[in-house]
Design brief:
Blueprint (H helix, E strand, L loop, with lengths): L4 E7 L2 E7 L1 H13 L4 H11 L5 H14 L1
Antiparallel strand pairs: 1-2
Length: 69
């Protein structure tokens, strides 16, 4: 298992840091490319629908669901 890596994202004009394992970052980049979106755009989409769940957790669940579907 690898350690999470922290990367900065910009959501709605504000910078935030998200820690994900490298494998999740790779999958997140791949899904963004498939949807022809930037990581920031896809993260903002996930952020808008995540409710009270942390952003990193919401991104992991988004990736899991996308890869299962």
């Amino acid at each position: 298992m690898t350690r999470p890596e922290k990367h900065s994202l910009t959501l709605h004009g504000h910078r935030t840091s998200v820690s994900l394992e490298p494998e999740f970052w790779d999958a997140f980049r791949e899904l963004a490319a498939r949807q022809r979106k930037t990581l920031n755009e896809l993260a903002a989409q996930i952020d808008a629908t995540r409710g009270d769940v942390g952003l990193a957790s919401a991104i992991r669940v988004f990736i899991l669901r996308a890869l299962q579907g």
